[in-house]
Amino acid sequence: MISKRIAQDAVMGSLWFCLMALTLFSSRCSLLAQGPASGGHLANEGFPGGAIHRQLCFSTADCGNFKGVGEVGTAPISIGGFTMSPQNAPTLVLDDAGAGTGAGNPIDIYTSNSTGAQAWAANNTGVTPPGYYNFAALGPFCLTASGTTGGSAVVLDPCAGTAGQAWDPVLIGSFYEFQPTNSTNLCLTASGTAVGSAVVVDTCSGTPSQQWSLTVETNSSNTGKGGPFASPCKGIGDLSVAGVTYTPTWCQEFEGPARPPSTEAWNFDLGNNNGWGNGEAEVYCGPPGVLGNPIQCPTTFSTETAPVYIDGNGHLVIQPRNVNGTWISARLNTDGGQTFQYGILEARIELPDLTNQGIWPAFWSLGNNINSGVPWPVAGEIDMLEDWSPQVYNGAGDTGENSTIHTYLTGGDGISDRYLFPSGEAVNTAFHIYGIIWSADKIQFFVDDPSNPFFTATPASLPAGDVWPFNQPIFILLNEAIGGTLGGSITGLTNPGPMTVDYVRWYSAPQSNF
Q1: Spatial distance between the Cα atoms of 237 and 194, rounded to a whole number of angstroms
Q2: Contact 5/420 with Cβ under 8 angstroms?
Q3: Taking CA atoms, which of 24, 151, 190, 278 is between 20 and 30 Å from 361?
Q4: Could you tell me if 153 and 197 are in contact, meaning their C-beta atoms sit under 8 angstroms apart?
Q5: Which three-class secondary structure state does DSSP give residue 203?
Q6: Where are the beta strands (DSSP E) in 104-243?
Q7: Average pLDDT of every residue of the chain
Q8: Which ranges of the chain have pLDDT less than 70?
Q9: At 396, is the secondary structure helix, strand, or coil?
Q10: What is the pLDDT of residue 187?
């Protein structure tokens, strides 16, 4: 399939996110290590209190609550969006010079500019030796010690599992040292204090040039909108699958009178954005009064004219409409607000009739680090539900749906599987539950029955040299596109049916299941 998220520039700002024990908070925060490990500095080496090796955790700025942090252990992190600053130049950050991705691109320290060249991701899954970390930027490109002698340059190279790419983060006091495994006593070092100063590895000495702070922060537009307070799970019970109990944490149930959807829980993509990279024809609208609504969108609310509304019967309805020759529709997302990591994500949906081409409904997600400059598809895309007419590339139509992951190397095609309903069932004659069971390094897709997934994706599913981007927070989207790569021709489109959503729920996973 072809992604719905090739063109993001018009709608994405810089969003930095903050995690406490892998849970989103909206505040500035620092990264601290936790848990002792062998081989640390000792107090008599001049480092008061010793040192902590090979573990990272995420905490709020005051770092006063270590209960949750202590439970994280060495769970995979694989998230992007934190910066690294040396204490000899604390206003500058670790930077991939010129945002280059060629082998051997130099690393320097530079003025913070909230780009992907300064947004680092940490991962300790599959790293050799076990417990060490890769640090990556701009996708599958890793921080690399180019040599084993003092003064060797630190560069950005394609991630290849080399010893120079495996780092031991050592917490000493309030700051980190970073030691590569291809040497015994070298540390990540800012060679100077000026903008553009090279970063090298040099003999560990505990100087400010080797002491690094790690920072994650949100921008002013992310005020916590969309969090659990805006989407309570009242009356929703736990969900147990394969002996694991998942807790309802974020729920959109769409109960109450007919009205526009919540602008506290949802954001709305607006306009056509050059076809959203797929040649789509629709203009997306938000509820009346949403800032930036295109002129084709209704200015007053009515279920007879709105392209998206709550119907008064417990449903969210996305209803494409033709307004004076222009198709309008809706694409809701939680970007800039609620993100999700691990657990069960599901939506109960009845799709429109997809016999004929012209429409393309979907329930899907994107990696939240797309907001810090990591491009699509490196940031990762998960399509829980996507459907289109059999008249276009042999779509499943009313008989089933496709679920897909998109990664750096799989691109627009992705890795996909198709679910087909039993005889007598269809996407457009009843509500069905579409979802994923998600844990570190595994996504299981299901329809109606989470105990019986039809498609499982893991890092082993990817082609050689690819990168698994799905151990990081995501945000979700719901939309019904008009035309486009998989929507097909709109020449004969006259009265498309709605995408009707009964609920969207996130059941968070117990931390032991990370």
Answers
A1: 56
A2: no
A3: 24
A4: no
A5: strand
A6: 105-111, 120-123, 134-137, 141-145, 152-158, 167-172, 175-180, 186-190, 199-203, 212-216, 239-241
A7: 82
A8: 1-81, 114-116, 125, 216-226, 511-514
A9: coil
A10: 96
